[in-house]
Write a structure and sequence with these properties.
By secondary structure, this protein is of the alpha/beta class. The radius of gyration is 21 Å and the shape is globular. Helix 3 crosses helix 4. Helix 12 links the parallel strand 7 and strand 8. The chain is built from 14 helices and eight strands. It has an eight-stranded mixed beta sheet, with helices on both faces.
């Protein structure tokens, strides 16, 4: 009798797990279908209002002068033997100084760290990478090339190529997600972790499934699962949707922030209008649901989490919840009035808070290799 009950319990547990899995993927594909319908309606409306302009967009042939600003650093390239990919990065500061590595988010590239490259090169070897699929780095077109493991391994390979075995790691948005994962998997390689407007991946998963309001803010995660159509929607009307991400009242940099200049915006259009660039950037989303939940969660490095109060994509409650997964010093700073694009929106405040965090415990730990 006891054995029968045991088998029955195992069967019920297995059935419950399968129901959860089916429910999880049903939610994803159902929401994806809903987002597709909304996007199709927007496309039809655009065609009605601007029948000739809707499908007009152009590749920017010449980089704007700001991308060749020598005060930001030197443009360098590295080909990683294991993956075969070539990565572009901009580096400044003396070789041999502690490494500060910057990982950008979507839909950005190394240029999003321009204010930090200038600020921290006096004390660090600062390196801002074009991550896989972005900028002048190689652009694998298959979504299978953008697994969490591949993206984390890219960071490890780049750190080691630069001649270091550890670094101060700074990430924003998707770069923040990869920074969290790297610190979890390679704690010995991260002296300090600095994340901007990106929740711990486990916090995001748990919170989004329990809060419909966050699920709504994350609707782009579902829409981007579609092949080709998101690229089209970003491209129509000469990349109007891309420009709106940085400049609109709902998602862009706030009135109190440091607004993008016309040349700054053109830098983003130059990078993301190149053939395959939007697909590379969107492929980060096309692997996310199969990569969660994480098997490991805990971060053992000191962590600074900076959060823009007006983030249009992530609810602020997730920031405090990140504390649950950190087994070291944790500092959280909410920046009033700041948007999701924090390091560009409020660079002076961000830089000051980073300096304060870096100097904490300075006498106890060395950053040097």
């Amino acid at each position: 009798m006891a054995r029968v009950l045991q088998y029955l319990l195992l069967f019920l547990m297995s059935l419950a797990l399968r129901i959860r899995v089916v429910g999880y993927w049903s939610l994803i594909y159902g929401y994806c279908a809903l987002c597709t319908i909304v996007a199709l309606l927007k496309l039809c409306w655009n065609i009605i209002l601007r029948p000739t302009a809707t499908f007009q967009w152009g590749v920017r042939e010449t980089p704007p002068a700001c991308l060749n600003d020598t005060s930001l650093g030197t443009h360098c390239y590295v080909r990683i033997k294991e993956s075969g990919l070539r990565f572009h990065y901009v580096a400044a500061g003396e070789r041999g100084k502690p490494l500060m590595l910057f990982l950008h988010g979507f839909p950005e590239f190394w240029f999003s760290w321009r204010y930090q490259l200038r600020e921290f090169k006096s004390e660090f070897r600062v390196v801002a990478v074009d991550m896989r699929g972005y900028g002048e780095s190689d652009l694998p077109l298959s979504s299978d090339s953008y697994t969490f493991d591949s993206l984390v391994t890219d960071v490890k390979d780049i750190v080691e190529y630069l001649g270091y075995n550890r670094c101060c790691l700074v990430g924003h948005d998707w770069g923040g997600t990869i920074a969290w994962l790297f610190a979890i998997q390679y704690p010995e390689m991260v002296t300090k972790l600095i994340v901007l407007n990106s929740p711990h991946p486990s916090v995001f998963t748990d919170y989004a499934l329990r809060h419909p309001s966050q699920l709504l803010k994350s609707s782009h995660f579902f829409f981007y699962q579609l092949p080709r159509f998101p690229e089209l929607m970003f491209s129509i009307n000469d990349f109007k949707a891309l420009k709106a991400l940085f400049t609109s009242r709902s998602t862009g940099i706030g009135r109190k922030g440091r607004l993008l200049t016309a040349e700054d915006l053109e830098a983003y259009l130059y990078a993301l209008s190149q053939p395959g660039a939007l697909t590379g950037a969107l492929n980060y989303y096309r692997n996310v649901f199969s990569s969660l939940p994480l098997s490991q969660n805990h971060v053992r490095s000191p962590v600074l989490l900076l959060w823009g109060e007006r983030d249009a994509f992530f609810e602020q409650e997730m920031a405090e919840a990140c504390r649950l997964y950190i087994r070291n010093h944790f500092r959280l700073n909410i920046i009033s009035g700041a948007s999701h694009w924090l390091q560009q929106d409020q660079p002076d405040i961000v830089n000051t808070l980073i300096w304060t965090f870096l100097k904490e415990g300075e006498g106890r730990k060395s950053y040097r290799n």
